[in-house]
Structures are given as structure tokens and as C-alpha cells.
Design goal:
flat, MetI-like fold, 307 residues, mainly alpha, single chain, 0% strand, Binding--dependent transport system inner membrane component family protein
């Protein structure tokens, strides 16, 4: 029996050889490079001169380097900074609201003694499968809630995510033992105190995961601004960059209509500006990912396991 136990333990603790580890390290490194390379390539294109882009196309090592794309956007720095501030506020406030609603909803339906557990779970699943459509959403936001042209019109439509609810529900079921909650109830703790003092500290990886999902959604959102925002002071960054791109394309397509428009279109570095806008809109949220990484992997692993 002892010999069998030793053999079983040896099998369990057997590791790959050095050559196998090296092979997998190379494969993982190549995969990571393919994920990062597009952003690096876009940054190179944004720093390429417009003449070099027209003559040589996209090159890793361009013949002409230029900051014309960033200079063109710098001329609109006040409007871009205002839109960036709006986007940051919407992302931060929206993420807090989304995580608060999602985590409390998920915790409620994860408790076996909650009376409406099954009904609310099915309700969340139905909203994942069926959507009322754009027109009812617009009527609710503008006529019923009177939120048109307010910053809440950019926050509330994405304040609750059914997918994140299911992820957090599974996470709570697997990571928060019922024995701890029952013991806290016996000691006289209320449900809110149990949730804040016991459940939330145990659910940090899951909360970090859905926080990243929510932050990405708010940061990249432009459609709600297209529907509900008319004031220039409330335009988010993504929607502003889309408007700038649309104006550049319009000037380029109608350059032959007037000499002034032709001169303005010729002086705009179209391709470099387009790539510079991609860098400006992508880099800030990409830099925040390393802070969530260690929680993100664990949260997705636990929250994605089926019960």
C-alpha cells in the first residue's frame, strides 16, 4: 500500500521536461506577441508621415516619421480633454453602479433560502436572450425618465449586466461557504453587514472581473451618446472621435466642391489621424488591465465553472 501511495504521489507531482517547458513558453510568448503586435503596429502608423503612407503603404519601418496626426488632434485639445473627462467620469461612476447592482443581485439569487431566487434567475436569463429593442429603450429614457442630454443617459442603460450576474452568482456559490454566513446570522449580523463585511472581501476576484467588463463597456460606448446626447459638453471620447473621423471623410469626399475645402482636406493627415485616434481611445484602458490581471484570471476561472 505504501509503495502504491508513493507511486501515485509521484505521478501527481510529475512535471514536464525542460524541452517541453521551453516549447510551451515559446508558444505562449508568440501568442502574447500576436495580441500586442496590432496595437504596436497602429502606434507606428500613427507616427508615420502621410506622404510615406500614400506612397509605401503601412510599414513597420516607415521612411518618414511624423507627429502630424497628433498635432491635428492637439488643435482640438480642449474639446478632446472635455470628452475625455466625460468618459472617465462615466466609466468610474458607471462601473461603481454596475458592480453594486450586479453583485447585490447575484448574491441574492445565490442564497438557497431566498424565496424569489428561481424567478429572478430566470428573469436575468430572459433579458440575456431577448431585448426590447432600440425604440422602447429610447422612449423609456427620454419620455418616462426624462434623461435625454444628461450624463445619466450614458450610465443607466448599462447599469446592470445579466452576463455579469450569472458569473457572480456562480462565484458566490463556489467561493462563499454557507457555514460562514449562517454563523454570522447566529451572531446577530444583518444581511447588509454580512454582505459588506464577509461576502465582499471573499469575492474580490469576481468583483475585479466584472469591474473590468463594465469599465470596458462604458469606455467603448458611443451608441448611447448618439441617441441621447446633443450637448457638446457631454459628448464622450469615443463619440467625439467618430465625429472627427466623419468630418475628415466628408471633407475628403467633397474636396472638389470648393477650393477652401480642397485645401483643408489636403492638409489633413487622414490615415495618421485615424490611427492616432485609435491609440488615444485604446491606450488608457489597456494600461489599466495589468492592475486587474491577477484577479481577472482567478475570477473568470471560478465564475465560469458550471455548478
Amino acid at each position: 500500500m505504501k509503495e502504491k501511495k508513493i507511486k501515485i504521489s509521484e505521478v501527481r507531482h510529475r512535471t514536464f521536461g525542460k524541452k517541453t517547458n521551453l516549447l510551451f513558453s515559446i508558444l505562449i510568448g508568440l501568442f502574447a506577441f500576436t495580441c500586442v503586435f496590432p496595437l504596436i503596429f497602429v502606434m507606428i502608423i500613427s507616427l508615420t508621415g502621410e506622404n510615406a503612407l500614400v506612397t509605401d503603404g503601412y510599414q513597420l519601418f516607415p521612411s518618414e516619421w511624423s507627429f502630424d496626426g497628433y498635432r491635428y488632434l492637439y488643435e482640438m485639445k480642449e474639446q478632446i480633454l472635455q470628452s475625455l473627462l466625460v468618459t472617465v467620469v462615466v466609466t468610474v461612476v458607471g462601473t461603481i453602479v454596475n458592480v453594486s447592482f450586479t453583485s447585490t443581485y447575484a448574491y441574492a439569487i445565490s442564497r438557497p433560502n431566498f424565496r424569489w431566487r428561481r424567478f429572478l434567475t430566470i428573469f436575468a436569463l430572459i433579458t440575456m436572450l431577448f431585448s426590447p429593442g432600440m425604440v422602447p429603450n429610447y422612449i423609456v429614457m427620454t419620455n418616462m425618465l426624462q434623461l435625454k442630454d444628461t450624463i445619466w443617459a450614458l450610465i443607466l442603460p448599462m447599469a446592470l449586466s445579466p452576463f455579469n450576474i450569472i458569473v457572480m452568482r456562480t462565484f458566490f456559490n463556489r467561493s462563499v461557504p454557507n457555514a460562514i454566513i449562517e454563523s454570522a446570522r447566529i451572531d446577530g449580523a444583518s444581511e447588509i453587514r454580512i454582505f459588506v463585511k464577509i461576502v465582499l472581501p471573499l469575492a474580490v476576484p469576481g468583483i475585479a472581473t466584472i469591474s473590468l467588463f463594465a469599465a470596458l463597456g462604458y469606455w467603448n460606448d458611443w451608441f448611447n451618446a448618439l441617441l441621447y446626447i446633443q450637448s457638446d459638453n457631454l459628448v464622450p471620447l469615443q463619440y467625439l472621435l467618430m465625429k472627427i473621423q466623419a468630418n475628415i471623410d466628408y471633407m475628403a469626399q467633397n474636396a472638389g466642391m470648393s477650393s477652401n475645402m480642397a485645401g483643408g482636406a489636403a492638409s489633413i493627415p487622414r490615415e495618421a489621424t485615424r490611427m492616432a485616434m485609435v491609440v488615444i481611445s485604446t491606450l488608457p484602458i489597456a494600461l489599466s488591465y495589468p492592475f486587474f490581471q491577477k484577479y481577472f484570471v482567478r475570477g473568470m476561472t471560478i465564475g465560469g465553472v458550471k455548478e
